[in-house]
Design brief:
By secondary structure, this protein is mostly helical. It is 69% helix and 0% strand. Helix 1 crosses helix 2 and helix 2 crosses helix 3.
Length: 95
Amino acid sequence: MKEEPFEVANVTGLTDADWADINRLKQIQKQGGSKALSKAMDELYKDPMRAVCVMGAFYPNEVREAIKDQMAEIGMTEEYLRELVRKLESPARDQ
């Protein structure tokens, strides 16, 4: 049974480091199959922020929904998050 290629679905906001990880994962999957890919992803997950960016490139909808679910689980609403961002970006904060 042939494995499906590991394809990027969303390139928005990817850094050079993200692309390096993406290309490394794709090469690992191509050469070693799903077991090797799983092991490489376990290593990537040791850095949660990087993992979210990289996995979001492959599975944008799933990552977005998982984040929303986790936020809801701790009681953080989308509006609360937007207000927090507004406060952090406020020029008054710099004074």
